[in-house]
Amino acid sequence: MDMPVQTFTPDNKIKPIGPYSHIARAGPFITISGTPAVHPDTGEMVGTDAYIQARQILMNFQQFLKHVDADLNDVMHIQVFLKHKADFAEMNRAYSEFFNTHLPARTVIVVADLPKDGALMTMNLNAVKL
Length: 130
Hints:
- By secondary structure, the chain is an alpha+beta fold.
- The chain contains two helices and six strands; from the N terminus they run E-E-E-H-E-H-E-E.
- The chain has a six-stranded mixed β-sheet, covered by helices on one side.
- Helix 1 (50-67) runs parallel beside helix 2.
């Protein structure tokens, strides 16, 4: 089965800060690049706390997935990169609002820094839409 990889960033959404696409898809497999808490209309960071930033990232994921006819129920795995271990509980609180019955696999890593100024975290995901 030939499954060419399609890569794209939806129009009128967050512009990448480097040479990459936000979405890659090959057949039913979907990957969304590392996404900080950027508001899609302004391109600016949202909030200064982990709860607000996590909510924005997950709302961005919803929009990206919608662009490929998928939703959060299709998510298999999410990686979370936190700048501060102390933000884990607030990230988790927001995360629980989006994932309460469907619980994809998840990895949380604390990192020294992130490329987007003001970002307390970034997340990426893998999904499958059959």
